[in-house]
Amino acid sequence: MTDPASGTERRANPHLRTVFVEAYDLLAPFFDPANAWGGKTHEHLAYRALHERFPDMSTDDVFIMVAAAKRVFGSGGKPASP
After folding, report:
1. Rounded mean pLDDT of 40-58?
2. CA-CA distance, 33 to 69, in Å (whole number)?
3. CB-facing half-sphere around the CA of 16: CA atoms within 13 A
4. Looking at residue 65, what DSSP letter applies?
5. Where are the domains of the chain?
């Protein structure tokens, strides 16, 4: 996100934004209630799947991506292309 007043980039990790749509597509099924088992989603598996797909991503970045994807999924929205 660019600050309209100064025109500078406000994101701390712009590289995460470039892979977010791909990551979201990978993670969305883990948050879908239709895929729940015993009323629980498979969020814990989302971390593993993301790390396997993006092995160079740090643990902190994996956590950020899963949390962001979960928020987008919960809002019923779709991520915008970078």
Report:
1. 87
2. 15
3. 18
4. H
5. 14-75
